[in-house]
Amino acid sequence: MVRVVEAKHVKDYIIWLRFQDGTEGEVDLKDELYGEIFEPLKSSDYFKSFIVHPEYHTVVWPNGADFAPEFLYSTLQVHA
Q1: Which of 2, 27, 39, 80 could bond to 69 as cystine, CB 3.0-4.6 Å?
Q2: Separation of alpha carbons 16 and 59, rounded Å
Q3: pLDDT (0 to 100) of residue 50
Q4: CA Rg value for the chain
């Protein structure tokens, strides 16, 4: 099971993530913010308001928007 254990806003629509297996890196979500639930995330202040949900193990916004942790893991850009 893929789980996000830590997340930090980097800049713009980029979030740094660490997963339960120790993998960490950045994901840029700018091209993923389409659809009614993701529209509010286009506001940079609102985008920064995510938390790591303790039960869903992914990043979640106050309006209920989230991304599957498996999707985040698969799009992760790992920096050496």
Answers
A1: 2
A2: 11
A3: 98
A4: 12
